[in-house]
Amino acid sequence: MVRNGENSMDAAVNSLAAMSKSVQAIAIDAADYFKKSFEQVAATAENLVGAKSLDKAIEVQTEYVKMPMTASCHRPPSSPSFMPILLR
């Protein structure tokens, strides 16, 4: 009976440790994504402020709108870096 209780406790501790790693991986990926996103917005704002003409401002804005479609930081929520941890 005591052995069963120990096994259950070990399983619960292992499960909690795995969940903790998963949450940590998700938080790291989210922080990276938001950092890259903020950097892109800041760079675009800087380029807009520095635009010398309306055509250049429109060009900068158009490039910004296209950026999330091709940017490496834009990826679906199921990020490859933490999926193996979640699937254990």
Key words describing this protein structure:
mainly alpha, 88 residues
Overall tally of structural domains: 1
What is the rounded Rg?
A: 22 Å
Estimated share of beta-strand residues? under 5%
- Alpha-beta content class: mainly alpha
End-to-end gap: 28 Å
Taken in chain order, the helices and strands follow as HHH
Oligomer state equals: single chain
> Residue-averaged pLDDT, rounded?
81
Number of E-state strands: 0
The profile of the biggest β sheet is:
none
The helix content is over 70%
Number of helices: 3
Query: Spans with pLDDT under 50 lasting ≥5 residues?
Result: none
Indicate the overall shape.
rod-shaped
Q: Would you kindly provide a written description of the structure presented here, covering whatever features stand out?
A:
The chain has 88 residues and is mostly helical. The protein has one domain (2-86). 80% of the residues lie in helices and 0% in strands. The protein has helices spanning 2-50, 54-70, 83-86. Helix 1 (2-50) runs antiparallel to helix 2 (54-70). The mean pLDDT is 81.
Question: How do you describe this structure in short?
Answer:
The chain is mainly alpha-helical and 88 residues long. It has three helices and no strands.
